[in-house]
């Protein structure tokens, strides 16, 4: 009869390992070092083997978290404190010392474990030699055939067999089957005292009956893993005891096998359920990895966006921790993928902040230079050229990025003071409208760029309407400096010819609106409304050239805008009155 004994497979080992691990994620780096060091000092190999990798994972997870938390942050997207550099370097050295200490402990553990495993393998080989020797001694008793002398020796050999420790797994099956066969030969083939043999059979039957009862009771254990592991121990003990009487051998084994089948089935169902959970958990963790990897493809340009993405990554890390295990086969691989993507994200963030500080310093230098230029020009009485120079400086100022927070407001106040000084002097001492003329030139240049950027639809009627809108806007902009007039007009008509080749020169000059005189007061008012609306758009466009409205020049523009809005309201009211009159007459 063959008694096939179950063994714990790799999948069970994976489940047990994940169920037995202690959660060290809430421990500090020093606490983890103390725990690891204590285990090494106590030489508790079982606890070390069970917890070493969990300690390692928790240590590096917390180390990365603390390093990330120490990374410089920017709340408003414009500045990073410059006073934390020394403190950050001291903290980083502390983290480096703790990491070095952990690597030393981990290396000591690996060396100790290798030595421990080597000793165990040596002991197993020694046990194998002992058990083979016991089998040979039983065979010698069988060949001797003297029952009265041999049976006490046989009992002693059985006891030695049970006291001998484990042997290498590769020899386990063959050695135990040989031992069982040899013992059965001793009982069945050697003529011994039946009463003595029957007593031994009876004792073995009682013990194996108790094993059956214990195996059957395991069906009530709700912890499937615990029940399965206990069953393995019962199987190991079952093999240590000799046979029972022939009439009971099949029945007792069938009973034990039936109890084994119940536990086996429960475990298999549990394991299948675990595999589905592992699969779902792996899918969830893979999705998180993909989200982090997608972050790496994003072009993050501001500290505000970096803060948003960092918070999103921390949320994903939290979700990761809440997802259960994925099994031994994929656990390390998926974790390494997540960790690699996270590390790359933080490396990019660090590079951004390093570059951000450098950029802000460059911006500070540029804006300081603009302030110096403005201060050099603020007392100039060359109103035309200096006005244009200040407008250019204001445009440059707007195009330069942020500077350190502590420097931003004083620097802006310095620049504004120089601008206000010049424009106040200009408006007190000159009635020259050059500023408006130069701003009109800028408006026309901007309109030419807008025409060049236009993409024709292919529908002539729709494109003609777009062209008419450009022409009307052009005609609504006021005079430009004489020396620039021909140049800007040439650029304007070339842009129209390129985008609207189907239109006549007259329509491009706005002659279409001038060919027909208004046939009614209502049409006259509508045309007047359109012209005033174009004037208002010009004024508002001119206001856009100033980053911070201030000074008497800005006040003058504001007055023109308010007057234009009032005129538009008045004309609109007249048009409504005419429409009401037309409706009543109809």
Helix/strand structural class: mainly alpha
Note poorly predicted spans: 1-20, 73-82, 511-519
Question: Mind describing the biggest β-sheet?
Answer: none
DSSP helix count? 20
Determine the N-to-C terminus distance.
116 Å
Estimate what percentage of residues fall within beta strands: under 5%
The total strand number stands at 0
Q: Would you list the SSEs in sequence order as H and E? A: HHHHHHHHHHHHHHHHHHHH
| Mean model confidence by pLDDT | 79
Helix proportion range: over 70%
As a whole number of angstroms, the C-alpha radius of gyration is 46 Å
Shape: elongated
Structural overview:
Residues 86-96 have a biased composition (Basic and acidic residues). Keywords: Coiled coil. This protein has 586 residues and is an all-alpha fold. It has helices spanning 10-20, 29-42, 45-69, 85-144, 147-163, 169-189, 194-217, 224-240, 246-297, 303-322, 328-377, 383-399, 405-429, 434-453, 460-476, 482-499, 505-508, 511-514, 521-543, 551-585. It starts with 9 loop residues before the first helix and ends with a helix.
